[in-house]
UniProtKB/TrEMBL annotation:
GO terms for biological process: protein import into nucleus. GO terms for molecular function: nuclear import signal receptor activity. This is Hikeshi-like domain-containing protein. Belongs to the OPI10 family. One of its GO terms (cellular component) is cytosol. Residues 18-124 form the Hikeshi-like N-terminal domain. Residues 138-190 form the Hikeshi-like C-terminal domain.
Length: 193
């Protein structure tokens, strides 16, 4: 049905590496794969196998779960997008409320482990197929906005409770922004980091 690779960390693994929970849900216990170092695994590549046909209105969704935390959606693959490299945004594990609770949990034997979950879901119900790309775009937009604000602030005056800027400030900023981007190919890349 599907396979996964952890770039620079594993060979391709097929569905047999996962525990099947039911017809549409699979789990990979990261403790058996990397032990406590699960948070160092930052990406997963998931792909549909050639002989598997996923219905066009369905997606294979990928989730990450840190020990004791809820699952976090990472992205998905579909027939139109049969493979993807997804970031694994491991949620921070919840802190123990007290040392006593921690001792009780430790006495209960098996510690909770990080997991990768894969499930077949309705494509229309998924938020976005590539969560990491959305976050990069959001970060880029915020950094460009911050650049504009800093530029405008250097030219503004104060009139009561209002900031006053020259009328051509946006044109001046945009020209300067474009010139920097032309002169320095790394300029825009620094915004995305």
């Amino acid at each position: 049905m599907f396979g996964v690779v952890f770039p620079n960390r594993s060979f391709p693994m097929d569905i047999s590496a996962f525990s099947q929970i039911d017809t549409f849900h699979w789990l990979l216990d990261m403790n058996t794969f990397v032990g406590d170092a699960y948070d160092q695994v930052r990406e997963i590549c998931i792909f549909l196998l050639n002989n598997f046909t996923l219905p066009p209105d369905k997606a294979l969704a990928v989730y990450a779960q840190s020990p004791g935390s809820p699952f976090v959606f990472c992205g998905a693959v579909t027939l139109a997008r049969p493979s993807a490299v997804l970031s694994l945004p491991w949620p921070d594990p919840p802190s123990a409320a007290s040392g006593e609770q921690l001792q009780i949990a430790a006495a209960d034997a098996v510690p909770p482990s990080a997991k990768i979950g894969v499930s077949v879901e309705d494509l229309a119900l998924l938020p976005s197929l590539d969560v990491a790309a959305e976050k990069r775009i959001e970060l880029l937009a915020m950094k460009v906005g911050e650049n504009l604000f800093n530029f405008m602030q250097s030219f503004c005056g104060v009139d009561g409770s209002k900031l006053v800027v020259p009328m051509d400030i946006l044109d001046r900023w945009f020209k300067k922004f474009q010139e920097k981007a032309k002169r320095d190919p790394e300029f825009l890349k620094r915004f995305a980091l």
